[in-house]
Amino acid sequence: MANAKSKKRTYRSLREYRRAFFPSGHRETTGSVDPFATGLEMAKKFNFEYANFYAAMAYPGSQLYNDAIKQGIKLPEEWYGFSQYAEETLPMPTKYLSAADVLRFRDHAFKEYFTNPGYLEMIRGKFGPEVVKHIKEITKHEIHRKILVLER
Q1: Structural domain total, the chain
Q2: pLDDT bucket at 31, cuts 50 / 70 / 90
Q3: Which region, left, alpha or beta, applies to residue 17 given φ > 0 means left and ψ of -120 to 50 means alpha?
Q4: What's the CA angle centered on 143, arms 148 and 67, to 5 degrees?
Q5: In whole angstroms, what is the distance from residue 19 CA to residue 4 CA?
Q6: 98 lies in a domain?
Q7: What is the per-residue pLDDT for 4?
């Protein structure tokens, strides 16, 4: 962690921007959402200029897809079901969490990160108030998720 903090200072001093990617829904994830929460907390701690929270997907042609077919895991029936932002998004479940739980956390992490006051202040300082205004507009929108409605 000390090495990561040192790199954070270096990147910031060079005026380079950092991005990080946080997948949720690996098959081996334990019964708790703690691994997801740990990723979100890390993102907030390091305050990346951009963070991508996404649900693991078994895309056609990938080994994960072939494995999912063999294991009988329900996959999207149409291409748009593989989109991270579609109403029909259907991510991979873990052995212990449903696809709905994985997607629910992904959407929660996105909202929590991009509405975090520390993040917005950092963005204001680097990119100005117009970018903050844009981010606030984006985070006002909720993505309707059919899988979450069906679960109720």
Answers
A1: 1
A2: low
A3: beta
A4: 55
A5: 13
A6: yes
A7: 60
